[in-house]
Amino acid sequence: MSQKEMVDIYILGKKYSVPESLTIMDSMEYAGYKLTRGCGCRSGFCGACATIYRIKGQKELKVNLACQTKVEDGMYLTQLPFFPGDKKAYNLEELEPNADTMVKLYPEIYSCIGCNSCTKGCSQDLNVMQYIAYAQRGDLENCAHSSFDCVMCGICASRCPANITHYQVGLLARRLTGKYIAAETEYLNERVEEIRQGKHDDSIKELMNKSINELKELYNTREIEK
Amino acid sequence: MYTAQMKELIKKVEATRSERLGVQFERMTPQEKEEVLQENHPDYKEENFRELRLGKNKGDKVPLELADLIEAKSRLENINIDLSKIHYETDVLIIGGGGAGTAAALEATEKGAKVLLATKLRFGDANTIMAEGGIQAADKPEDSPAKHYIDVMGGGHFTNIPELVEALVKDAPEVIKWLNDFGVMFDKENDGRMITTHGGGTSIKRMHAAADYTGAEIMRVLRDEAINRDIEVVEFSPAVELLLDDEGKAAGAVLYNLETEEYLIAKAKTVILATGGAGRLHYQGFPTSNHYGATADGLVLGYRAGAKLIFADTIQYHPTGVAYPPQIFGALVTEKVRSIGATPLNIDGEQFVYHLETRDVEASAIIRECQIRKKGIKTPSGVEGVWLDTPLIDMLHGEGTLEKRVPGMLRMYQKFGIDMRKDPILVYPTLHYQNGGILINEHGETNVENLYVAGETSGGVHGNNRLMGNSLLDILVFGRRAGAHAGEKSKNIKVTGLSLEHINTYHKSLEENNIKTQRVAPMLLPQYTHGR
Question: What's the complex ipTM?
Answer without folding.
Answer: 0.96
